Automatic annotation (TrEMBL):
<dbReference type="InterPro" id="IPR016181">
    <property type="entry name" value="Acyl_CoA_acyltransferase"/>
</dbReference>
<protein>
    <submittedName>
        <fullName>Beta-lysine N-acetyltransferase</fullName>
    </submittedName>
</protein>
<dbReference type="InterPro" id="IPR000182">
    <property type="entry name" value="GNAT_dom"/>
</dbReference>
<feature type="domain" description="N-acetyltransferase">
    <location>
        <begin position="131"/>
        <end position="282"/>
    </location>
</feature>
<dbReference type="InterPro" id="IPR022525">
    <property type="entry name" value="GNAT_AblB"/>
</dbReference>
<dbReference type="Pfam" id="PF00583">
    <property type="entry name" value="Acetyltransf_1"/>
</dbReference>
């Protein structure tokens, strides 16, 4: 297990009034604000990313900005419908490390998507279940870390760190857990973007002994209920493209496949492709 992953120096910086997240853990840079962007500033950001030896630059941009990113060599990898308070975002990427440009598992990942899209089973709440579901509290963190460590060798965010989980739980991430005999057996979270009223469904993990029982789908359904109640417009998830279970769960819940981010983040020991799944919470 990669226990150093809490020592990465990820940071928020500002380049020519543009907010940037420098993600050393995944060797990528994310452009967070867009209003003052010009070709000149994008080139400045690219130079910075090269200097920091990062392999990929990503941005969720407005439709009218697609051209300017394409001029700078970015490609569209997908869409998150309704990301900006109902307006769609295009997921643009620039591959600085050419080895990250091509998927190693494209054929397998396409088969998984075909299966999920054709599989017409719809989500139904489980009756007579042995587990209970509730919002996680700080006292759950030691058990949550234990479960994350059992499921993931490495992870794009520092979910093996107590301090990190305490901070995000307090600030902007809603965690739901499923519990059986006082033991946490499954986790899912919603990372809340209150500025744009979207939420990313993430940090999905189920104890291998309890898989195949619809638990993760139920947790995501509970998260969606909270999001709808609080006026969120869109839920989306970036799921591991080569993992059938999570893609199947999202498809069953009515999420729509909207693209794939190639070699996007370091998870379970290497770079993996992430499928984009999107669901409108407001009809």
């Amino acid at each position: 297990m990669n226990t150093d992953q809490d020592n990465f120096k990820n940071q928020y910086i500002n380049i020519s009034d543009i907010d940037i997240y420098v993600d050393y853990r995944n060797k990528r840079l994310k452009i967070l604000s867009h209003s003052l962007l010009s070709e000149l500033i994008i080139k400045e950001i690219i130079d910075y990313a090269k200097k920091e030896n990062l392999g990929k630059i990503i941005v969720n941009c407005h439709k009218h900005q697609i051209n300017i990113f394409e001029e700078c060599g970015f490609v569209a990898e997908g869409v998150i419908d309704g990301f900006f308070q109902g307006e769609d975002a295009t997921c643009m990427s620039l591959f600085l490390d050419k080895r990250r440009e091509n998927s190693l598992y494209e054929e397998k990942e396409n088969r998984i998507i075909d299966y999920c899209v054709k599989n017409t089973n719809r989500f139904e709440l489980t009756k007579n279940k042995n587990y209970t579901m509730r919002q996680a509290v700080p006292d759950d963190i030691p058990q949550m870390i234990q479960l994350f460590q059992a499921v993931f060798e490495t992870y794009p965010t520092p979910i093996f760190s107590r301090e990190y989980l305490q901070k995000v739980m307090r600030d902007h991430v809603l965690f739901m857990v499923a519990e059986e005999e006082r033991k946490i057996i499954s986790i899912a979270s919603a990372d809340l973007d209150k500025q744009h009223m979207n939420a990313e469904i993430t940090d999905c993990a189920t104890n291998p002994k309890y898989r195949g029982r619809n638990i993760l789908s139920e947790l995501i359904f509970q998260l969606e209920t909270h999001l709808k109640r609080n006026g969120f417009v869109t839920a989306y998830s970036l799921s591991r493209a080569k993992n059938l279970g999570i893609n199947k769960s999202l498809s069953k819940l009515g999420y729509i496949y909207r693209g794939r981010l190639i070699n996007n983040c370091n998870i379970s020991g290497g770079y993996e492709d992430m499928n984009i799944w999107v669901k409108a919470l407001k009809k």
